[in-house]
UniProtKB/TrEMBL annotation, chain A:
Cofactor requirement: thiamine diphosphate
Native organism taxonomy: Bacteria, Pseudomonadati, Pseudomonadota, Alphaproteobacteria, Hyphomicrobiales
Pfam family, one: E1_dh
Name of the protein: Pyruvate dehydrogenase E1 component alpha subunit
Enzyme Commission number(s) of this protein: 1.2.4.1
Role: The pyruvate dehydrogenase complex catalyzes the overall conversion of pyruvate to acetyl-CoA and CO(2). It contains multiple copies of three enzymatic components: pyruvate dehydrogenase (E1), dihydrolipoamide acetyltransferase (E2) and lipoamide dehydrogenase (E3).
Keywords: Oxidoreductase, Pyruvate, Thiamine pyrophosphate
Catalyzed reactions: N(6)-[(R)-lipoyl]-L-lysyl-[protein] + pyruvate + H(+) = N(6)-[(R)-S(8)-acetyldihydrolipoyl]-L-lysyl-[protein] + CO2
GO molecular function: pyruvate dehydrogenase (acetyl-transferring) activity
Residue ranges occupied by any Dehydrogenase E1 component domain in the UniProt entry: 33-331
UniProtKB/TrEMBL annotation, chain B:
Enzyme Commission (EC) number: 1.2.4.1
Gene Ontology molecular function: any one: pyruvate dehydrogenase (acetyl-transferring) activity
Organism listed in the record: Sinorhizobium kostiense
InterPro entries registered for this protein in UniProt: THDP-binding (IPR029061), Transketo_C/PFOR_II (IPR009014), Transketolase-like_Pyr-bd (IPR005475), Transketolase_C (IPR033248)
Matches recorded under CDD domains: TPP_PYR_E1-PDHc-beta_like
Protein name as it appears in the record: Pyruvate dehydrogenase E1 component beta subunit
PANTHER family: PYRUVATE DEHYDROGENASE E1 COMPONENT BETA SUBUNIT (PTHR43257), PYRUVATE DEHYDROGENASE E1 COMPONENT SUBUNIT BETA (PTHR43257:SF2)
Domain Transketolase-like pyrimidine-binding: 8-183
Group of enzyme by EC: oxidoreductase
Cofactor dependence: thiamine diphosphate
Key words, A-Z: Oxidoreductase, Pyruvate, Thiamine pyrophosphate
NCBIfam families reported in the protein's UniProt record: PRK09212.1 (NF006667)
Length: 343, 332
């Protein structure tokens, strides 16, 4: 295959994790760059929020970057995703421009949703992101519908449906998985299990040990991966995408991960310990682990990694500046786009 | 242009519209519970599966929420689904997808997408199916910007409005009164559309305007006939759409007759009649009023099973006659 880390000998590469066998160096470094971009975007958004430049609320996915990026690595631009209230990472991983995302958070006309959606409805249809969703489980049946279109119109697209552990107890989850399975649709259900639906742990909310166990009820493969290891996530996604493109139907992937920040800006973090949070941040951080591998396998030098961080910071600064100077929507545009044509 | 006109039933008119739309555009698909070989709970889909196959006349599992969501997702990405609820009451199971997703997606995404979705809701009482299969819930959806909500009252209108709905880029909710399914009326062959935003004056009159929806249009017309015998001239307006409401037609009628009665089957309080009344109270027609505005709506109860109680729960012709007579003669 053309997509291998060509600097290495065949016998050296055979034992390497999946992505190092599957992707070119450039793609591997681009994935790292996007993971940094996701984290710095969210840190930048948080700073802007603290300074009163962004209103409302936001749900940060800091700590979950490998699941967003790993799932999107095997996708092409035409493939589609549905996302969640914690969806900034999905949006960036699928190819959105952080300039227009910041502009949306600032409520500006240049934002992806012309300032009408904000963080919770961030979308970039041009890169296949059909939108984050403010309703837990709201995107699940919609993803199945998008996959139905792909199958009916033979577009060859696959659809990835991101959702959190909280959504797996919504009726929509069960209805969506069942329909995807009976109609063998090209959809991949990706549960980002960060351990808590707001404050309620999966142990307290969910009758099965793993969300992926529920795949058995809908006759589809249920795959559990360490959601903080990019290669593991990308490998599971790759297999599910191939299966979907072959017409063999859906897969449920469960990425075990963790969010460092609270559920939203109102969270006092009283349902988990500081030790637990510190353990994840210190020992299981997805970016640190990926960078360590890139160094270990000789794919990049520490100078090169530093350069990536620097270029990400520049992009973030430029994005915030773009948002600041972009125009506010006109008040008389309040009713724009309630309907496609004015009634 | 002048297509032959035949007498066919309301449900045949719907089926014909769906077949025409499917013939013309491969993206049009039907989805719903038991709409395939069974033909639909009210046989509206009938044998369309024989013509278009199970890929385009799709039986869904009994999953109203998921099914509605699949239709939303399909509409956003390039299909033109017509989704049938078996009973409008079951919309309660799917409100999330209708209200939070379909209605708002275009707005939330700043105009980046459209949701060309049609949903059909068999509605209303009179079939002895009691409280969970007889409601008129159109006002629920009429309250949601982003949706278009229509109540065609005749075979002609349901065909033309359904074809307009399929061509419309936004979600259109069609409430079909179940007692209308067997009603016959003149329907042109072939393709034609009826606007989704225009009321129709069904009978002209001088003394009182009766604004009615769905099956109540026919009851109002019956009442107008009785009233004519008593020397009272009633104008009957078929509202046809509750979102948007054709303000112009209703205001013009009230300015002419100076009296207004709203007749609808949904529960009276906070219903369509409240909206029409308020609209007139806020309009230039207010100064023309010679009498209070009256609302005849469904009772403040669930729909009961017993046939006599069931009839008593929704407006009937004698009540409309009494109300109009009272208003015109100043006796209330």
């Amino acid at each position: 295959m053309s997509g291998r880390a060509r600097a290495m000998q065949v016998e050296e590469t055979s034992n390497l994790p999946f992505i190092y066998r599957q992707y070119e160096r450039e793609q591997l470094l681009d994935a790292l760059r996007k993971m940094h971009l996701i984290r710095r975007f969210e840190e930048g958004a948080e700073e802007c929020y603290m300074r009163g430049l962004i209103h409302g609320t936001m749900h940060l996915s800091i700590g979950q970057e490998a699941s967003a990026m790993g799932i999107c690595m095997p996708l092409v631009n035409e493939d589609q995703i549905t996302s969640t209230h914690r969806g900034h990472g999905h949006c960036i991983a699928k190819g959105a421009d952080v300039k227009r995302m910041f502009a949306e958070f600032f409520g500006k006309t240049t934002g992806y949703c012309a300032g009408r959606g904000g963080s919770m409805h961030i979308a970039d249809v041009s890169t296949g992101n059909l939108g984050a969703n403010g309703i837990v489980g709201g995107g699940l049946p919609i993803a199945v519908g998008a996959a139905l279109t792909a199958k009916r119109l033979r577009t060859g697209k696959v659809v990835v449906c991101f959702f959190g552990d909280g959504a797996n107890n919504e009726g929509a989850f069960h209805e969506a998985l069942n329909m995807a399975a009976i109609w063998k649709l090209p959809v991949i259900f990706v549960c980002e299990n960060n351990g808590y639906g707001m404050s309620t742990s999966t142990e307290r909310s969910t009758a099965v040990a793993n969300v992926a166990d529920r795949a058995a009820a809908y006759s589809m493969p249920g795959v559990i991966v360490d959601g903080n290891v990019l290669s593991e996530v990308a490998e599971a996604s790759h297999e599910a995408v191939e299966r979907a493109r072959r017409g063999d139907g859906p897969t449920l992937i469960e990425c075990k991960t963790y969010r460092y920040r609270g559920h939203s800006k109102s969270d006092r973090n009283r349902y988990r310990t500081k030790d637990e949070i510190d353990d994840w941040m210190t020992n299981r951080d997805p970016i640190k682990r990926y960078e360590a591998q890139l160094l270990e396998f000789g794919i990049a030098t520490s100078d090169e990694l530093e350069a990536i961080r620097g270029s990400v910071q520049q992009e973030i600064d430029a994005g915030i500046e773009f948002a600041k100077v972009s125009p506010m929507p006109a008040i008389d545009g309040l009713a724009d786009n309630v309907y496609t044509f004015e009634a | 242009m002048n297509a032959p006109v035949r007498e066919i039933s309301y449900s045949q008119a719907i089926q014909e519209a769906m077949a025409i739309a499917m013939e013309a555009d491969e993206r049009v698909i039907l989805m719903g519970e038991d709409i395939g070989v069974y033909g639909g709970a009210f046989q509206v889909t009938g044998d369309l599966i024989d013509r278009f196959g199970p890929d385009r006349v799709m039986d869904t599992p009994i999953s109203e929420l998921g099914g509605a969501g699949v239709a939303v997702g399909a509409a956003v990405t390039g299909l033109r689904p017509i989704f049938e609820f078996q009973f409008s009451d079951f919309a309660a199971l799917a409100m999330e997808q209708i209200v939070n997703q379909a209605a708002k997606m275009r707005y939330m995404l700043g105009g980046a997408v459209s949701v060309p979705l049609v949903m059909r809701f068999p509605a209303g009482s009179g079939t002895g199916a009691a409280a969970q299969h007889s409601q008129s819930l159109e006002a629920w959806l009429g309250h949601v910007p982003g949706l278009k909500v229509i109540q065609p009252a005749t075979p002609h209108d349901v065909k033309g409005m359904l074809l307009a709905a399929v061509a419309d880029p936004d979600p259109v909710m069609i409430f079909e009164h179940k007692l209308l399914y067997k009603m016959k009326g003149p329907v042109p062959e072939g393709h034609y559309t009826v606007p989704l935003n225009k009321a129709e004056v069904r009978r002209e009159g001088r003394d009182v305007s009766i604004v009615a929806t769905s099956i109540m249009v026919h009851k109002a017309l019956e009442a107008a006939e009785v009233l004519a015998g008593e020397g009272v001239s009633a104008e009957v307006i078929d509202l046809r759409s509750i979102r948007p409401i054709d303000r112009e037609t209703v205001v013009a009628s009230v300015k002419k007759t100076s009296r207004l009665i709203c007749v609808y089957e949904g529960v009276k309080t906070l219903g369509v009649g409240a909206e029409i009344s308020a609209m007139i109270a806020e309009s230039e027609a207010f100064d023309y009023l010679d009498a209070p505005i009256l609302r005849l709506g469904g009772s403040e109860t669930p729909i009961p099973y017993n046939p006599e109680l069931e009839k008593a729960a929704v407006p009937q012709v004698p009540e409309i006659v009494d109300a109009a007579r009272g208003l015109v003669r100043g006796v209330r």
